[in-house]
Amino acid sequence: MTAAGAADLAPQPGTVASRRRFYGWRIVTALAVTETVSWGVLYYAFAVFQVPMRAELGFSTAQTSGAFSLAVLVTGLAAMPVGRWLDRYGARGLMTAGSVAAVLLVVAWSRVHSLLGLYAVFAGVGLVSAAVLYEPAFAVVVRWFAVRRARALLAVTVVAGFASSIFMPASDLLIRAVGWRDALLVLAGVLAVTTVLPHALVLRRDPADLGLHPDGAAAPPAIPSSATHRSAGGLRRTAGWALRDPLFGWLTLGFAANTLAVVVVAVHLVPFLREHGHGGSFAAVAAGALGALSVTGRLAVTGATRRWPTATVTAVAFAVQAVAVVVLLAAGSSTAGAVAFVLLFGLGFGVGTISRPALLADAYGTASYATLSALGGVAFTAAKVVGPVAAGLAVTATGSWTPVLLGLFAAAAVASVAAARAGRLLSHRHGTRLEAGMG
Questions:
Q1: DSSP of 367-433, one letter per residue?
Q2: Residue from 185, 98, 157, 198 nearest 301 by CA
Q3: What is the Cβ-side half-sphere exposure of residue 209, based on CA atoms within 13 angstroms?
Q4: Distance between the two ends of the chain, CA-based, in angstroms?
Q5: How far apart, in whole angstroms, are the C-alpha atoms of residue 405 and residue 322?
Q6: What pLDDT is stored for residue 5 in this prediction?
Q7: Closest C-alpha among 166, 423, 122, 130 to residue 291
Q8: Rounded Cα gap, residues 409 and 258, in angstroms
Q9: Which of 177, 196, 336, 387 has a 20 to 30 A CA-CA distance from 77?
Q10: Which residue numbers in the chain have pLDDT < 70?
Q11: CB 325 within 8 A of CB 409
Q12: Are 370 and 89 in contact (CB under 8 A)?
């Protein structure tokens, strides 16, 4: 169907009916489902599967963590070419092909018998992760929404925030029922059914492809006063310009430090709890609860940014995570301490996920969003690679989790300070409080 034909069949632009039926919301619905399953299978399930894998195959904590970190490294290396592809061609074909490959790789994971085989599989997982996880999904959302961008991002991430809550306990139950190898085959089937067709049939690159404007408006949205879009050329910031911009640097540092803390907890919380006397079911449920609490945190952040700057709210959330680590250090192996840690740390677990794309798109525009996001992703990749491996090596070398907890506190503190500094730069630069499209 041509763009003109699609426009003829659509409700009258600018009406309430057109906004309610806006095709962008179909895309948001599809991405909410596919991101939940993709994150659950390709990312969060690993924390549960690494325990029985180590037991059967004789791998150490550092070795299994290395496989996960390899996947993260490959994702980071693929980020720039993927970002350029997304800015030029859109996400439909890329996310469809990535989903098909992801299914095949999870099947291959179930057949692993050696460390080399595990690393080969997770190199592939890293590649497809760059094609199917949040970055390509956000690149779609920021093009389809402007005024309602925060609501659209929230809708995707609130649903996907339950990925760990669903797939970590589910993975534990499957492993107990059929063993870890057959459990992976079940998850591969779930991934195939819920991701391939939605990506192929629903996604579209740009509202203009269907004769529409962002948000379903009658005309292109007015440029927000809080944005830095001063001209059409301002939408296409170069990588070199971004690297020289202090605002970009502080945002990157803050979210990279937060990423390090989050990924270490995601990978190592289950082993930590089990080694401190907690049962496997408690550990899986506790780790999975981080996802549910991240939903609460995202809702709270979105509400709070109606009154305070997004960067400030983000800095507070990261500071709460630092407090959570202090609580865990003080509580030792007590159940109450573990629960308190999960409650406090979980509230900030998904804050970076929703605040970063909103801030980045608002500050630098959407035309080159994916490329700039990938540029910042280099630092996030380093954090994701270093974090799990360093934590695993620290535990292996010292026999204690205390160095890991101290590192988590430092990362959360740095994230909070950097986010606060970015907020001050935003306020100074624009002379007004930025809501980052979230208020």
A1: TTHHHHHHHHHHHHHHHHHHHHHHHHHHHHHHS-SHHHHHHHHHHHHHHHHHHHHHHHHHHHHHSS-
A2: 157
A3: 13
A4: 36
A5: 10
A6: 43
A7: 166
A8: 10
A9: 196
A10: 1-20, 218-240, 242, 429-439
A11: yes
A12: no
Q: Is residue 246 within 8 Å of residue 42, measured between CB atoms? A: no
Token pair listed for 23: 């095709």
DSSP one-letter string for 322-383: HHHHHHHHHHTT-HHHHHHHHHHHHHTTTHHHHHHHHHHHHHH-STTHHHHHHHHHHHHHHH
Instruction: Say how far apart CA 288 and CA 331 lie, in whole Å.
Output: 21
Per-residue model confidence as pLDDT tens digits over 163-209: 888 998 899 999 999 999 999 999 999 999 999 999 999 999 888 88
pLDDT at 234: 40
The Cβ of residue 242 has, within 10 Å, a number of other Cβ atoms equal to 21
List, for residues 122-142, the tens digit of each pLDDT value.
999 999 999 999 989 998 998
Cβ(419)–Cβ(254) below 8 Å: yes
Whole-Å CA distances, 296 to 51, 289, 312: 29, 11, 18
Q: Nearest-5° angle of CA 122, CA 55, CA 37?
A: 40
Q: Which residue has the tokens 């010292």?
A: 398
Q: What is the pTM of this model?
A: 0.72
**Assigned token pair, 42:** 């390709």
Q: Alpha helix locations (H) across 161-238?
A: 163-178, 180-202
CA distance 43 to 195: 15
Instruction: State pLDDT tens for residues 252-261.
Output: 999 999 999 9
CB 228 within 8 A of CB 429: yes
Q: Which two tokens stand for residue 229?
A: 């879009």
Cβ neighbours for 410, distance < 8 A, ≥ 6 positions apart:
none
Contact 251, 422 (CB under 8 A): yes
